[in-house]
Amino acid sequence: MTDAPLKLFNSLTRQAEVFEPVHPGEARVYTCGPTVYNYPHIGNMRAYVFADVLGRTLSWKGLKLTHVINITDVGHLTDDADAGEDKMEKMAASQAQSIWDIAEHYKQAYWADVRALNIRQPAQWTVATDYVPQMIEFAKGIAEKHCYELESGLYFDVSTVADYGRLARANTEEGEGRIEAVEGKRNAADFAIWRKTPAGETRQMEWDSPWGRGAPGWHLECSVMSGEVLGFPFDIHTGGIDHREIHHPNEIAQNQAHCCTNGLDDPRNSGARIWMHNNFLVERSGKMSKSSGEFLRLQLLIDRGYHPLAYRLMCLQAHYRSELEFSWEGLGAALTRFKRMVMAAESLKARLPGAGRDPAALGPGLRRGDEWGKLQPALDKFDAAIADDLNTAVALTALDDVLAAKKVDEEQKAALVAAMDSVLGLGLFGLTRADLRIRPKSATIAEDDIEAALARRKEARAAKDFAASDAIRDELAAQGVEVMDGDPLGWEWKLV
Ligand code: AMP
Ligand code: ZN
Questions:
Q1: Which of 87, 311, 352, 480 could share a disulfide with 37, CB 3.0–4.6 Å?
Q2: What would the pLDDT profile of 423-447 be if each residue is shown by its tens digit?
Q3: How far is the CA of 192 from the centre of ligand 1 (A)?
Q4: Is the CB of 239 under 6 A from ligand 1?
């Protein structure tokens, strides 16, 4: 039934490869999670929507998924290489709050976005500060052969492992332009795995180590948490495309040092067999930058009346490896498409035999050998698309085909919609069209008043009193309500 072999693009080889699990029947995935020093922007959330679709696809293919996402609450500098300040310490200082409170607040905010976007809970959220003793042990294990100490900390010598930077297609010297010089570094791309607290300073988060009191480097954190929880080698490591350049090459170098130091021709040595990266969401006017006043957070979309899952749909309409340009028009178009899908699912649900039946429960019941009749081509199209390096844009059209199918068994149709949605994660059967009408924060008029005005307008039109009907329309417009006569979705009004 779902037979297309799963192919995933591996950044390490720059090729799509047929997925072969390290442990038969299982898939173990590690996703670089957020640094919880500020709210995530919607670009950040694209990375987790991608990782979620990957996990759901692995489940669709019958694999037992173990997904881990980390929470970085220490050690990430304002520059991914070794320059700048600690993001967490900097935010805590600027807000005059404890770093632990900052971490808790922004972790909760991130989790709220995760829930709003229907991103499934991973098997484990690993929090960096819970793993510091293991990080010290890991560093001790590689220090002698691969590291050297400087005034500012313990540094990894990238020339001690074969193929450094293969993932980034860079070498030890090419990194130079990006990496602020640290006195005494042997190679430009060498990086700190332990950062000592400078003499005379104290940090809110610091631990004792053989290299002095200080904090772990960000790259060390991910190597340790992924290896601890999933075991080396595990199947897939994910992150945004920026991580392909510095963070992940550095993780790989550490993993090589930890595992065996051989070259990357043996994929076991990189810690994870497959490294996958989502491309960026871009916004030309700079609203994605967290330093711009009103940056693009999911809450801003909601405040403007867009359902958060319209943003998820917008992500799914593009391939994860393509850049996606954000625009309010694009989001509006995704919302319109989403409304259509929710309305189709709603009416399908209403037509199902057996009142109160939960169609979502029908989904996972797809079985090999089931006869899908007229729905078979859509199922094949969906499976082939999703297996082709997660081609969600095409998979969505297969879902549209099923929603539009006529003269088919309604229960089968609902089962197929639910099954496809178990991969796309749009939550179609859990929503009604009313859920999609979100009140923009700026709206001043109450919905009951709008409905009452529209009822009066209907009466006026029935009595052919077009002057009165137009006056009501104008009054509503003055309060930010657009009346939508003849809207194909039957959406009689919207707040603008
Ligand atoms: P950070 O919290 O800065 O470590 O970022 C969290 C995740 O978001 C990482 O996987 C980044 O690679 C990813 N990311 C950052 N900016 C964007 C963007 N504009 N579009 C997509 N992913 C992004
Ligand atoms: Zn990471």
A1: 87
A2: 999 999 999 988 988 878 877 788 8
A3: 21
A4: yes
